[in-house]
């Protein structure tokens, strides 16, 4: 056990939005929790060492390990890491797609001379103006899709977690003491995602309070003054 642990903050938090979650927000991942009280002092999560250890145990490439959450809801005592293992075809497909886009960008204008460019510019000028809005929307959709990984692109997380649990040498990973290894579909929510429903309910409560106060004030102002005979006799 390392002295001075209570004086040190937990390692820096890290989250990524590279996956396409299900409608209910679930996504299958392997979740590893480290006990920082039983681990050496660290200022930063040893990502490379973590990848190498997991990759060696599962006999995959370190590039196949996609880290999704690091201590996103962690405490000073425990560090939670959630990750998934990409299938080979998924990683290769991503590389091929990026290479194709690069080739198109590099070679797109090599076969045109200046006159061709001018003619194309004149012919397409009006069309470009008309298609700006729809083109921008399509480009945004394409760029978003290009960074989203579907669950089908990963090795079954439940089987991976079961294999890792059975490996006795994974009691420590990247010199950090492992507290638990488990499969879960409850991926940690990204930080700074406010729940607007709470704000809406609070706004409604404020409006109702204001309206009730106004109605009570109007009723108190407009009601007829009445006097008791007993009070007049006094």
Give the gist of this structure.
The chain has helices spanning 47-58, 88-107, 114-146, 157-165, 196-222, 229-233; strands at 14-15, 29-35, 65-70, 78-85, 172-173, 176-184.
Question: What can you tell me about this protein's structure?
Answer:
The protein has 6 helices and 6 strands, in the order E-E-H-E-E-H-H-H-E-E-H-H. The chain has 234 residues and is α+β, with helices and mostly antiparallel strands. It has a 6-stranded antiparallel beta sheet. Residues 118-128 have a biased composition (Basic and acidic residues). The chain crosses the membrane at residues 199-222. Residues 102-148 are annotated as: Disordered. Keywords: Membrane, Transmembrane, Transmembrane helix.
List descriptors.
membrane, alpha+beta, six-stranded antiparallel beta sheet, elongated, 234 residues, transmembrane helix, transmembrane, single chain
State which percent range the strand residues make up.
5-15%
- Which sheet architecture does the biggest sheet show? 6 strands, antiparallel
Q: What general form does the structure show?
A: elongated
Count the beta strands. Answer: 6
Biased composition (Acidic residues): 102-117, 129-144
Keywords: Membrane, Transmembrane, Transmembrane helix
Transmembrane segments: 199-222
Biased composition (Basic and acidic residues): 118-128
